[in-house]
Amino acid sequence: MKYFYTILFLYFGFSLNAQLKSPAEFLPGYGKQVTYYHQVENYFNYLVQNSTSIQHKAYGQTNEERSLNVYYISSPENLKEIESIRQTNLYSIGMGPKPEAVIDRAIVWLSFNVHGNEPAGTESAMNIAFELLNPLNNATKEWLKNTVVILDPCVNPDGFSHYGNWLRSIGGREPNISTADREHMEPWPGGRENHYAYDLNRDWAWQVQAETQQRMVLYNEWMPMVHVDVHEMNLNEPYFFPPPAEPMHDYITKTQKDFYSTIGEMTAKKFDAKGWSYFTHEVYDLFYPSYGDTYPSFNGAVGMTYEQGGIGAGRAVQMRNGNVLTLQDRIDHHTAAVITAVETSSWQKDKLIKNFRAYFKDTRQNLKGDYRTYVIKHNGKNEELAKLLEANKIKYAYADETKKLTGYHYQTDKQSDFTLEPNDLIIGTNQPKALLAQVLFEPHQHLSDSLSYDITAWALPHAYGVDAYALKGELAVKTKPLPAYKGKFEYERVYAYYIPWNGRESAKLLAQLHKNKIKVRSARKAALYRGIKVSPGDLVILKGDNPNLTDFKEVMTVFLQQKPDFEVIESGFAVSGSDLGGESYPLLEEPKVLLVSGEDVSSTDFGQAWFYMDEIIDYPVTIFDLKNIGSVKLSEYNTLILPDGWYSLDESDKLRIDSFIAGGGKVIAMAGALNIFEDRPGYSLTKFASEAERDAAKSTKESEDLEARYYNYESFARRGISSVVTGAIIENTIDKTHPLNYGLGDKYFSLKISDAHYQLLKGAANTAYIPQRYLSFGFIGHSLKKRLANTVTFAVEDKGQGQIIYMIDNPLFRGFWENGNLLFSNALFLVN
Ligand SMILES: [Zn+2]
User: Fold this and answer.
1) pLDDT digits 0-9 by tens, 508-545
2) What is the whole-number distance in angstroms between the Cα of residue 114 and the centre of ligand 1?
3) Interatomic CA distance for residues 78 and 327, integer angstroms
């Protein structure tokens, strides 16, 4: 008998080993300490090696060379047919060819930790994967029979590691639960964003960042029906799950809203049973289209945000109510909520699939916007716009005939006649991504509630500074997949190269030329050279300026590959305008660029400037912490970039900047950085142009305050709203002759994200300003709307040998304002 027991014991021992280890069994510190990213990967590798219900797919790499991964979790039978399941879904919505086998499954995508310093995301991802795979869990096994889960444990591995490594580096043996401890005070710039301090949860539609670009390729290959975006928020807040808050974008469908309610009720039951606090349909709205909930929603999915209190919570923290919140608590809450999302999706699988397909099938009936076709007039900027459309899988074509049409004109906000011409870009709504196209092109977004906490306007024609029309009907014209380029002008000899200044590729090429010490001139006036029309800002590279280049033509040919719209000029003699040797073609100075970082600077705004320099134009930049300004030899540089921030420079540091400018330096100061110069003797920057205007503003404020005395308690939160702008597009009149405006178009539409404003400056060139009567798109509080008239948006002041460029709005905001990128390039390269 004894022998028998031994056998039995061995048998059970073996069986226990065959079970899957939970994260707590695999990682000794799990739930007590933030896991290192490589350990997260190790755990998932372990799961892949020990379960037949999970597959790994690496989909890319971060800026810091960490791997981006998703895991497909489903029944072993489904995983064998994973490709057919994917193809069936794509085919059913018109985005892919017919699969060999038709297999319908619910497709649920779970994204964790898009914000790096919200680590309960990735931590809970391990636990959720385990729960789904646990051989002893019969419920999840059942769900996975009809559901494929695509689990991305960490959307932002660089940010997650940044935060986790920091927390490890400062943590004592035991967690310190006092919020005064440094464990709860992450230093600048923090791990929320990615390597370039970009918020990846604002980047879904624009795909400026590498993580998003790579993920969206996979996303569009799958097109999930449900997307769950897992976050953390202020550590004192109770848990948040759907339904979301108003304002919800008009285009969120009834079936999507119904699913929010279903999932909300299911999740509430689980939380009620545990006695956990939660809230729904408050705070987190569904409007701005570039979040992890809205973007999937505009792609037919049920897009959802889940939030656990936890930012700054470290390993454990005492909350305001006296309770201690541990990392394990945060994992438990996320696990319960997200598992319920999978459960609900499985339970509602048939409905989910039906609704998802109807969303795409009935697109033409479902469309809510006024317009069915968008036409972008042919210009040098359309290539960048086409790249964005391609990244979003929005189909487009180019006109191949001429036709007289009438449509809504974006630049004037009016109906107007125009002529469609060959090479104009056309985006129609008779396509699977019709609704997304409408969201991105809609000139007037309908806002159901003005209290949105993000930008409320983003129409692509304004962002790209292109001349565009929206048409009410579908357009039946001859089209072609690519624009036809006119051939180059013939030439016998190279006197100079001509490069149009029309977008980021122009700036990128100029950056390359500067780096290679090739001398470049920029036109200040229009001119004509045997058919080649030169506009202000366009670049000219004279052979005569570059005598050191013995093989001028060969060298230039290599550089010019990236800018195929260049031309060769045979003679410096102008048919009209000035000759190439004249004063209309100043030599451009090679920028030697400094960029400040540190506590005084907004990390995301710093990141946008850094990303612009490093990635968009690929040009050297020296970054220093502002507190070290005393030890930086400013005179070795000629350009200083001051991003938005909360600057508190002392007088001696301000004097350093004064003498940098006086000695020939150029300062580009953005938004909050303007306070360094405001009302400073010798600078023209001041909020009011005269005492009378200052008094007028004071009395307006006074009467508003008097009126506010009658507001009741409930409207208290809304009383400030009349002077608020969270993000609106505003028309600017521009001085087209000024180098800061070259290539921008007839007007500039600026994205205004703060109420800061200055009246037109005396003693400076007000290069862009908001006119008395101006067009605006998106929400602006009514009293602010009046005050913004006749205020300046960009100005250039000459001082001593140098210059200061005031940017009241940040043209680099989130990197997606393409005309803003060009404006910044003008500031960097052409203004001198
Ligand atoms: Zn977040």
Assistant:
1) 999 999 999 999 999 999 999 988 999 999 999 999 99
2) 7
3) 34
Tell me how far the alpha carbon of residue 432 lies from the centroid of ligand 1, in angstroms: 29
By mean pLDDT, which of 2-16, 137-151, 343-357, 774-788 is the weakest?
Answer: 2-16
Distance 303 CA to ligand 1 centre (A): 15
- pLDDT in the model for residue 15: 42
Q: Which residues have beta carbons under 5 A from ligand 1 (an ion)?
A: 115, 118, 231
Task: Find the 118 Cα to ligand 1 centroid distance in Å.
Answer: 6
pLDDT one-digit tens code per residue, 210-225: 999 999 999 999 999 9
**CA–centroid distance, residue 208 to ligand 1 (Å):** 18
CA of 308 to the centre of ligand 1 (A): 9
Strand partners, 469: 375, 409
Helix axes 37-50, 157-170, angle to 10 degrees: 120
Parallel/antiparallel/unpaired status of strands 67-73 and 147-152: antiparallel
Q: Strand ranges (DSSP E) for 331-391?
A: 373-376
CA 191 / ligand 1 centre spacing (Å): 11
Q: Find all residues with CB under 8 Å of 680, minimum gap 6, and list them.
A: 654
The mean pLDDT value for 614-623 works out to 98
What is the Å distance from ligand 1's center to 242 Cα? Answer: 15
Whole-number Å distance, alpha carbon 155 to ligand 1 midpoint, is 11
Please give the distance, rounded to the nearest whole angstrom, from the Cα atom of residue 115 to the centre of ligand 1.
5
125 C-alpha to ligand 1 centroid (Å): 15
Residue 826 identity = N
Angstrom distances, CA of residue 765 to CA of 109, 736, 740, 831: 51, 12, 10, 12
Q: How many A from CA of 792 to the centre of ligand 1? A: 34
Do 234 and 311 contact (CB within 8 A), yes or no? yes
Percent of the chain with pLDDT over 90: 86
**Cis peptide preceding 242, ω within 30 of 0:** no
Structure-block tokens of residue 616: 């968009």
**For residue 325, is pLDDT > 50?**
yes
Task: Give the model's pLDDT for residue 7.
Answer: 43
